[in-house]
Amino acid sequence: MTSEPAATSEPAATTDLRSDLLEQFEKLLPGHRDIGEELAERYAEPHRHYHGLGHLAFVLDRIDAFATGSHDLFSVRLAAWFHDAVYAIPPGQISNEEASARLAIRTLVRSGFEQEELGEIARLVRLTEQHRTSGSDINGELLCDADLAILASPAEEYRRYVDAVRAEYSRLSDEEFAAGRLQVLLSLGGRTLFRTHAGRKINSVAQQNLASEALELIDRLGVRDDLDPEAWPLA
């Protein structure tokens, strides 16, 4: 695999990373740097220990790594910029992904996007809530694979990712977080997580990481029947 940017963002996101991302955005949507700057501000919010600028850079990098000539890279890349634009903990009355999709529509309609384009970008953003796509949805597969690629990281990087997600849920006790996290891990275990040609090659690594973490949490919790965990987003 090619070298990748760090998937987790430090509290003080580097000026270089922000500048590089804004340069990418200007190439993607020339003349609309203001939109890129607004989105970068969102990803730099202080409560984002994982879902920050580093995660955005990582997803964009994986899109390029997994893409083929058949993909609509403009829509997928733009959807990636918006996919975690709203990241509230806990979410509001609607999911963060739904709020991000609506933000994309409100923002891009002012830039002259047609309804069909808006609908596709919003659809892609919404897919990142459950990461489930149909067999013919190659654009959705590409975005979801890029968003979940952190799950197939080497052990040390995977641990940093888990620690960063834990920091985002610092309001929860260790037991509450472990219970919620375990529920999500078990729901992902055994699934074919990646659908692109490149992504399928890393599915087994991701499943090994998920299984190892799940076993650790099961041991820690003792499989308590009285816990009623909520599901917490992974990517």
Report what the structure shows.
With 235 residues, the chain is an all-alpha fold. It has 2 domains: 15-150, Orthogonal Bundle (Hypothetical protein af1432), CATH 1.10.3210; 152-221, no CATH class. The protein is 59% helix and 0% strand. It is built from 11 helices and no strands. The model is unreliable at 226-235 (pLDDT under 50). This is Metal-dependent phosphohydrolase.
Helix residue percentage: 55-70%
Strand percentage: under 5%
The description of the largest β-sheet is: none
Output the structural class: mainly alpha
- Uncertain runs are 226-235
State the end-to-end distance.
Answer: 20 Å
Radius of gyration, in angstroms, nearest whole number: 17 Å
CATH domain fold name of the largest domain: Hypothetical protein af1432
Separate helix tally? 11
Write the CATH homologous superfamily of the largest domain: Hypothetical protein af1432
Mean pLDDT: 90
What is the H/E string? HHHHHHHHHHH
Q: What oligomeric state best describes the polypeptide chains here?
A: single chain
Q: Count structural domains.
A: 2
CATH A-level architecture of the largest domain? Orthogonal Bundle
Name of the level-1 CATH class of the largest domain: Mainly Alpha
Shape: globular
